[in-house]
């Protein structure tokens, strides 16, 4: 059981075997040795550590890397474009508006919408979203074609994202155009969109399987005519972080405009690649909620936020309404009829649940020991699971203290051995653990029990169970008879 959410957002949340700990400690002092954790207010170091801890981390982001935009980026949220290409997605107007408003309230800088050339409803929805008066900029995504551009500029969008495939695969098997034609059309479309006074971005589809000279040449051309952004797309999800770094860094040296990156997740690299793109100088990252899109989709909003928060929590907190993330993910998950994956960063069922005794002890002393993300920054709560065979006496002690029982450390170790013995047979609920602790405590208080008296403890537990069964039997008996009748 991994109940990491606070209010039952995960359908089957069961907290029965958990110790919920607010902030850092459960009745236990946080060490005052200078390594402050989450409990004592947040420090200015990354990762929730004190700045002294931060300085000791040789892998922390280095401010001296002048191209690095890890703490200076914009999100282009494409749930309503790339996300609509997810096999399960059908967004009616009401749902699109709800998603657009939620993303705006979260704080994304841009929302990208499906091409108005796709269908009459797509065009009408695009216009409707433009009229909402959202704080974020609204973009629409079109083919590199004047017909699409003419429709797009009439919708009221703040900008148009233009794309065309440049790899030999797409030039031969998709649109059939060569680089000369692509360049000529790109210039025409960009000039047209610019003439309408709105933002324009030019992107090559399948960039990582395109010829580098072709790429740099067309990007340089569109940069010269004043495109606002150029985009790189890992359309098939084939790129690795080193390749992303090299291409973005090379491009950074060739164009003066902003650089956007769009990364598919076919090999699970989308978040790492996005992070690396920022390190190399990209300025804009495409995301979708839960990563939905063609095939397995693109860089997920939540995962990217987790990754960037780990690098610079204060910057990410200042930009986005982090506690809204779970609500947005639930909204989109429901709209496309999927569950939020259990291993999802931040909102996954077990994202803030700690289990093994070694972890539990350290977490109770200072959550930074095993947490890079502070659950409270995302409106969530951490839990420590104790009713299992991997538990330890420190975790049990925290529960003893929560229950206001008085036991010595030696006694807690003794009763922990009993919990582990029982948990070897089946996981114990928190109620089970509490019963064991209360029976043990009253046995000690009454003098019926001393440390190491296993048989006496077994007898007390058996007697307690029998008494409870008798009590239940008295109230349950009539119901059984009634049901049988
Ligand atoms: C990698 C990506 O995700 S890119 C974005 C994908 N988004 C979409 O496809 C939006 C939804 N698409 C649609 O509604 C339709 O495909 C439309 C309206 C865009 C086009 O529909 P149709 O005219 O029926 O063409 P169809 O979809 O069969 O084929 C794509 C057409 O676009 C052309 N094309 C493909 N990519 C591009 C491009 N980037 N720039 C210009 N033309 C392109 C192809 O040559 C083909 O035209 P053709 O049939 O005249 O040769
Ligand atoms: O417009 C872009 O940059 C990307 C288009 C796209 O969805 C892709 O190439 O996967
Ligand atoms: Zn895509």
TrEMBL record:
Residues 73-326 form the Pyruvate carboxyltransferase domain. GO terms for cellular component: mitochondrion. Pathway: Amino-acid biosynthesis; L-lysine biosynthesis via AAA pathway; L-alpha-aminoadipate from 2-oxoglutarate: step 1/5. It catalyses: acetyl-CoA + 2-oxoglutarate + H2O = (2R)-homocitrate + CoA + H(+). GO terms for biological process: lysine biosynthetic process via aminoadipic acid. The keyword Electron transport does not apply. It comes from the Eukaryota. Its cofactor is Mg(2+); Mn(2+). Its EC number is 2.3.3.14. NCBIfam families: LysS_fung_arch. This is homocitrate synthase.
């Amino acid at each position: 059981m991994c109940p990491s959410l606070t209010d039952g957002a995960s359908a089957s949340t069961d907290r029965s075997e958990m110790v919920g700990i607010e902030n850092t400690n459960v009745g236990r002092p946080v060490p005052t040795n200078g390594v402050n954790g989450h409990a004592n207010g947040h420090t200015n170091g990354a990762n929730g550590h004190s700045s002294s801890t931060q300085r000791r981390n040789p892998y922390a982001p280095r401010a001296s890397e002048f191209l690095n935009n890890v703490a200076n980026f914009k999100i282009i949220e494409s749930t309503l474009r790339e996300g609509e290409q997810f096999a399960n997605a059908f967004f009616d107007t009401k749902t699109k508006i709800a998603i657009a408003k939620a993303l705006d309230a979260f704080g994304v800088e841009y929302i990208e919408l499906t091409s108005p050339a796709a269908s009459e409803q797509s065009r009408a929805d695009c216009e409707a979203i433009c009229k909402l008066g959202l704080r974020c900029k609204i973009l629409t995504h079109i083919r590199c074609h004047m017909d699409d551009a003419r429709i797009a500029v009439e919708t009221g969008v703040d900008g148009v994202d233009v794309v065309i495939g440049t790899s030999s695969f797409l030039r031969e098997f998709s649109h059939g155009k060569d680089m000369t034609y692509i360049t000529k059309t790109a210039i025409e479309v960009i000039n047209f969109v610019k003439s309408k006074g709105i933002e324009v971005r030019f992107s090559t589809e399948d960039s990582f399987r395109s010829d580098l000279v072709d790429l740099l040449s067309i990007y340089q051309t569109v940069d010269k005519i004043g495109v606002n952004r150029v985009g790189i797309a890992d359309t098939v999800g084939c790129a690795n972080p080193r390749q992303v770094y090299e291409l973005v860094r090379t491009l950074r040296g060739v164009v003066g405009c902003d650089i956007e990156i769009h990364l598919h997740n076919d090999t699970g690299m989308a978040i790492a690649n996005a992070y690396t793109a920022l390190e190399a100088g990209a300025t804009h990252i495409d995301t979708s909620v839960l990563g939905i899109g063609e095939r397995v989709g693109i860089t997920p909003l939540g995962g990217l936020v987790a990754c960037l928060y780990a690098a610079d929590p204060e910057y990410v907190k200042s930009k986005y309404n982090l506690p809204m993330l779970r609500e947005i993910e639930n909204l989109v998950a429901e709209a496309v009829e999927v569950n939020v994956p259990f291993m999802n960063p931040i909102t996954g069922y077990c994202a803030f649940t700690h289990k093994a005794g070694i972890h539990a002890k350290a977490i109770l002393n200072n959550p930074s020991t095993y947490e890079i993300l502070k659950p409270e920054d995302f409106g969530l709560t951490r839990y420590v699971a104790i009713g299992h065979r991997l538990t330890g006496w420190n975790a049990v002690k925290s529960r003893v203290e929560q229950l206001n029982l008085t036991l010595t450390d030696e006694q807690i170790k003794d009763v922990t051995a009993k919990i582990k013995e029982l948990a070897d047979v089946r996981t114990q609920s928190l109620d089970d653990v509490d019963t064991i602790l209360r029976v043990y405590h009253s046995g000690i208080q009454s003098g019926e029990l001393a440390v190491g008296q296993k048989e006496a403890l077994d007898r007390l537990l058996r007697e307690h169970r029998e008494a409870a069964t008798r009590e239940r039997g008295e109230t349950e008996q009539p119901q059984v008879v009634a049901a049988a009748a």
